[in-house]
From TrEMBL:
Name of the protein in its database record: RND transporter, hydrophobe/amphiphile efflux-1 (HAE1) family, permease protein
Domain of life: Bacteria
Keyword set, alphabetical order: Membrane, Transmembrane, Transmembrane helix
Record InterPro entries: AcrB_DN_DC_subdom, Acrflvin-R
GO molecular function: xenobiotic transmembrane transporter activity
PANTHER family per record: CATION EFFLUX SYSTEM (ACRB_ACRD_ACRF FAMILY) (PTHR32063:SF16), PTHR32063
A GO-annotated cellular component: plasma membrane
Stored Gene3D superfamilies: Multidrug efflux transporter AcrB pore domain, Multidrug efflux transporter AcrB pore domain like, Multidrug efflux transporter AcrB TolC docking domain, DN and DC subdomains, Multidrug efflux transporter AcrB transmembrane domain
Alphabetical list of SUPFAM superfamilies matching this protein: Multidrug efflux transporter AcrB pore domain, PN1, PN2, PC1 and PC2 subdomains, Multidrug efflux transporter AcrB TolC docking domain, DN and DC subdomains, Multidrug efflux transporter AcrB transmembrane domain
Ranges that cross the membrane: 28-47, 364-381, 387-405, 465-485, 492-515, 557-580, 917-936, 942-966, 973-993, 1013-1033, 1045-1067
């Protein structure tokens, strides 16, 4: 039944009717459309493009030196006070620290969204206000701030068949000098190669022969390399400036320095030096570029290399900066960059950002066209044109707001727009469909088209407004997710909510204007028939299916019981592990890292041999294009490395291998699958050399210290270490847990030369003189600079002993110092030698001493949730100190009086995200309930409208199981958004039921008729959501969002559409007896 009682054209109109009447024939309407499209175009061109959202989380490193102090003394004297001061600063979320021999590092992490400048000012103010609390012997704290803008967007590796590291370094310095001039380039750095250095190698035998101490040579070199502006004087009406001194400019200047006097004759540096050389420094690290069978025609090889990194200024366009740098380098070819030097781009986030944004723009266009075709099939091509106009106008307004909010174009903001397409067309669909229905009604065939259009818009206006705000109420609370995931996912709820608001305005202003012009002729052609429009087969099928449910209570209960059984079956998939829960799925990148840790005390050459063995294995893999080895130094860090502080890895027993894979479109396997395949072979090689490795992938979301992190707390340092050792063993024995490690140094031998102060004083030698001599002998010492104005880097003058004179305990003891009486005294006579073990570093988190045990997950259940559940069973059996181990999941223990353990890493973010999403969902339910109660003025109507929300799980969870996908945070976002969509549809049905009841229709007929009349717009809405979400499915991170929207829409449409009328019928028995009297429309005045 499809008859209606038309309203009088002058009846009271709602907001929708008023807007439609104002803009239906207004000349401003097309101007608004053109202005919106222009704004959108400007926003697309102006908004910077990046691959991932910019997460603003200031991290500051406070570094303090206290030479000679043990880790325990550094902890007590330096680290503890600084930690306490930093913890007092408002906005500080975490304070980490490492107390090492002679130095302290305190890492201050502020809350997400804090201003970097404000954080830096607060830290400096606190340090300077407490400067008097620093102990004597400690240096002034050095503060370095780090943010996501420090991550290099572009890295280029220089290598060549005929070049060594020293030559490549000089070339890289020239390239670096040039690209610093490119606009919007921030920090640049050169990694690897040997810098130019003036090396002075002293001979202990010659020094002894001339009676000169090694430290005396350094003092004389520093004194001889000085030049100052002495002053000026006036002569002949001209002021003459006087400079005094001398600067070293070449080896001859250095060799001629007088370092002593022997029998009245000067002793020059060349007399006591074995070698004075201007050239490459001794290798302190190795950087190698590895080719593979897939990329090198001549087969895999490794070449000396240097890597040049480029970061961009905050707010600039990564694509533009990267392209500008590469263009400038191309212009240098054959000038400062030799033609036979290979320059391989090993990271280009600007290119990947453009590729991703272009791909998603295509998906956005595809989704728009697909939705338009869907509407054309259901309503007609003219009708689809109305909706097609609404989509770009709404998206244009949304992009303009994105620009004003400071968002960038990245995959999250673009996914927000794609996700929005499925729901932003709802308003236009409802309005256009109702206008089409009214145009085709026989009772309207003689009425003016303007009146019918306004009446049609006004009829669905109020429920559409309410439905739109319920969708916004369902989506917007997700914007308040805290932690690192908050800004990462925030563009989705913010963008969708903005799009919904604009889509509502467009539906009431632009859509009626366009429909009047596109559908007017069609209306006039069909206006002469008084026959009612024939219902479609789907509508007729719906009416036939609903009749038995209305006639029999048994059928109604059987239907609802079946729905409950389906819901219980779907929910059971989670505990049965047919659907696995994870914070975010694995991403598909073209790179990953291998972090290599050798035992403490391992020399650089052995570390390099291990990395070369690993590189040899990588070179034979078909998916690997190339790799770079960084041995003894840190490679270019990404956001993951920034949070994990990989840039501090400069020890000779540490290495980093950056592995570059084939581009995503040239391989079938995802990067995670490749890393998982390579891990066993890499582990076998590492085990042969006693190395510990971690295969580190680019995280899909905010990075953490490691996937699995166990924090061990307790009253005793030794007890913590013993407990951590047991926890580490449990990690190693748990199936699916890989890359197990702990933050505890291996025992390393230490040679302590304790100065006998009495003997030293008798010889007129100070303790500091002995210490400086030993430092010069073992590590070398800088004695100033070589002043070459043409050099790009500073050229230090570096003094060291011959290798045989510093390679053994006996050689060190034989070094001689000059006593006060002129005699030469060997160190053996001044020191007592002790052999000890170096004390390990001490770690703190939020002022509590902690030992970290870390690991990753691999295998069938690649989620930390299930690995933790397995390990908890073994961990609960531990009884440190005679008490059961207390395990914390979400908060740090308040006290360290008893041994305890806290899970951190990805687990912490998982808890925070799902907790906040759960709270957001609870807020959603309350907001929707309040809105519906306020509108329908009934406490039972919201129950009918909200009852179908759980029904989306009937589709969502089985879909995840069939696709083998994790139920992730994006899946949860899809579920919550789906709740808003299903409530929206339910509101339209319930509102229409009550409209029919007011018109005098019986309850059973009203609920069936409402469902039948609203079936077509609901199907169009579901189809729009499905099509919009379908283009999201290929993305590994947002696949869960797409699955939830698609499967949830299908399930809710097929289950809730009968369920809502049935529930309304069951909860309103009074209407079944006698229908209310028809309402009398007011007379026309």
């Amino acid at each position: 039944m499809n008859t209606e009682i038309p309203q009088d054209g002058k009846a009271h109109r709602g907001l929708a009717g008023l807007l439609a009447s104002m803009f239906l024939d207004s000349k401003l309407t097309p101007l608004l459309v053109m202005a919106a499209l222009a704004l959108g175009l400007v926003a697309v061109l102006a908004i910077p493009r990046e691959e991932d959202p910019q997460i603003q989380v200031p991290m500051l490193d406070v570094m303090t030196a206290m030479p000679g102090a043990s880790p325990r003394e550094v902890e007590e004297r330096v680290t503890n006070p600084i930690e306490s001061w930093m913890h007092q600063i408002p906005g500080v979320e975490y304070v980490y620290s490492i107390s090492s021999p002679g130095q302290s590092l305190v890492i201050v992490r502020f809350q997400v969204g804090s201003s970097e400048q404000d954080a830096l000012v607060k830290v400096y103010n606190k340090l300077y206000a407490n400067a008097d609390g620093m102990p004597p012997g400690a240096s002034r704290p050095l503060v370095k701030v780090h943010s996501i803008d420090d991550v290099p967007i572009l890295t280029m590796t220089l290598w060549g068949e005929h070049y060594n590291g020293y030559e490549l370094r000089q070339i890289a310095d020239e390239v670096q000098h040039t690209i610093r001039q490119v606009p919007d380039v921030s920090e640049t750095s050169v990694i690897g190669g040997q810098p130019r250095e003036m090396r002075v190698i002293l001979s202990s035998a010659r020094l002894a022969a001339f009676g000169i101490s090694p430290d005396t040579v350094v003092q004389r070199l520093k004194a001889a390399n000085a030049r100052v502006q002495a002053g000026q004087f006036a002569e002949s009406n001209q002021e003459i400036r006087v400079d005094a001194g001398h600067l070293f400019r070449d080896t001859e200047d250095l060799a001629g320095v007088v370092v002593g006097v022997e029998n009245g004759r000067p002793v020059y540096l060349r007399d006591v030096a074995e070698k004075i050389q201007d050239g490459p420094a001794d290798p302190g690290d190795y950087v190698l570029f590895g080719t593979t069978q897939a990329s090198a025609p001549g087969g895999p090889r490794e070449y000396p290399a240097v890597t040049l990194t480029v970061a961009k200024l905050k707010g600039s366009n990564a694509t533009d900066v990267a392209n500008a740098v590469l263009h400038r380098i191309h212009q240098m070819r054959g000038v400062n960059l030799p033609a036979d030097v290979h320059l391989t781009v090993t990271r280009n986030y600007g290119a990947t950002a453009k590729q991703k944004s272009d791909e998603l723009m295509q998906h956005l266009f595809l989704a728009t066209i697909s939705v338009t075709i869907l509407i054309a099939l259901f309503l007609g091509w003219r009708e689809s044109g109305v909706v097609l106009l609404a989509i770009p106008v709404t998206l244009a307004f949304t992009l303009a707001i994105f620009y004003l909010l400071g968002y960038t174009i990245n995959r999250v903001t673009l996914f927000a727009l794609i996700f929005s397409i499925g729901i932003l067309v709802d308003d236009a669909i409802v309005v256009v469909e109702n206008m089409v229905r009214h145009f085709r009604m026989p009772v309207n065939c003689r009425r003016p088209l303007r009146e019918v259009a306004i009446e049609a818009v006004d009829e669905v206006g109020n429920p559409t407004i309410l439905a739109t705000f319920t969708v916004i109420a369902a989506i917007l609370p997700m914007a308040f997710v805290r932690g690192l995931m908050g800004p990462y996912m925030r563009p989705i709820p913010v963008g969708a909510s903005i799009a919904m608001l604009f889509s509502l305005a467009v539906a009431f202003i632009v859509s009626p204007w366009a429909a009047r012009r596109l559908l007017g002729r069609k209306h006039l052609e069909g206006a002469h028939t008084l026959e009612p429009e024939k219902e479609g087969w789907l509508t007729r099928l719906y009416r036939r299916a609903m009749q038995p449910l209305m006639r029999s209570a048994r059928n109604r209960w059987l239907f609802l019981g079946s729905v409950v059984v389906l819901l219980m079956f779907a929910a059971a998939l989670v505990p049965l592990k047919m659907v696995l829960v994870k914070m975010l799925p694995f991403d598909n990148k073209s790179e990953f890292q291998i972090i290599v840790n050798m035992p403490d005390g391992t020399p650089l050459e052995q570390t390099t041999r291990v990395t070369q063995a690993l590189g040899d294995y990588l070179s034979r893999q078909r998916q690997v294009v190339n790799y770079q080895i960084y041995s003894g130094t840190a490679g270019p860090f990404n956001f993951n490395g920034l949070v994990r502080h990989y840039y501090l890895r400069h020890q000779v027993n540490q290495a980093d291998i950056q592995v570059n894979l084939l581009p995503v479109h040239q391989r079938s396997e995802q990067s995670h699958a490749i890393a998982r395949q390579l891990r066993p072979g890499l582990d076998q090689i590492a085990a042969r050399y006693g190395a510990r490795i971690q295969v580190t992938e680019v995280p899909p979301g905010p990075p953490v210290l490691q996937t699995l992190v166990a924090e061990i707390y307790g009253p005793s340092e030794q007890g913590q270490i013993a407990l951590a050792r047991k926890v580490k063993k449990i990690f190693e024995q748990t199936p699916g847990v890989v890359d197990t490690d702990w933050y505890m140094q291996d025992p390393q031998s230490e040679l302590v030369m304790q100065v006998d102060q009495t003997k030293a004083a008798l010889h007129g030698i100070s303790v500091a003189q002995v210490a400086e001599t030993l430092r010069l002998a073992t590590s070398g010492m800088q004695a100033g600079l070589l002043h070459d104005p043409t050099a790009r880097e500073a050229i230090p003058t570096f003094v060291e002993m011959e290798r045989p004179d510093r390679s053994s305990e006996q050689a060190l003891e034989n070094i001689k110092l000059r006593a006060a009486d002129g005699s030469m005294v060997s160190l053996r006579e001044l020191v007592d030698v002790k052999h000890t073990t170096l004390q390990p570093d001490i770690y703190h988190k939020n002022l509590k001493r902690v030992v970290y045990v870390t690991g990753d997950v691999a295998g069938g259940e690649e989620s930390p949730v299930y690995a933790i559940l397995k390990m908890n069973q073994a961990l609960r059996k531990l009884t440190p100190g005679g008490f059961p181990l207390k395990i914390y999941n979400a908060v740090q223990p308040e006290s360290t009086a008893h041994y305890s353990m806290k899970w951190d890493g990805e687990w912490q973010i998982t808890i925070e995200v799902f907790r906040d999403l759960g709270l957001a969902f609870a807020v959603v339910l309350v907001l929707i309930y309040v809105l519906v109660v306020g509108w329908f003025k009934s406490f039972t109507a919201p129950l009918v409208i909200m009852a179908p929300i759980p029904l989306t799980l009937v589709g969502i969870l089985p879909a995840h199981a069939l696709m083998g996908a994790f139920f992730t945070a994006t899946s949860m976002i899809g579920f919550i958004a789906g709740a808003g969509i299903i409530v929206r549809n339910s509101i339209l049905v319930v509102d229409f039921i009550e409209l029919r009841l007011k018109q005098g229709m019986p309850l059973a007929e009203a609920v069936i008729d409402a469902g039948a009349v609203r079936l077509r717009p609901v199907l169009l809405t579901a189809g729009g959501v499905i099509i919009g979400a379908s283009v999201i499915l290929p993305d590994p991170i947002f696949q869960g969002l797409g699955l939830s929207l698609i499967a949830g829409s299908v399930a809710s449409t097929f289950l809730s559409w009968p369920a809502v009328p049935v529930l309304y019928y069951m909860l309103h028995p009074a209407h079944r007896q006698a229908p209310p009297e028809p309402c009398n429309l007011p007379e026309e005045s």
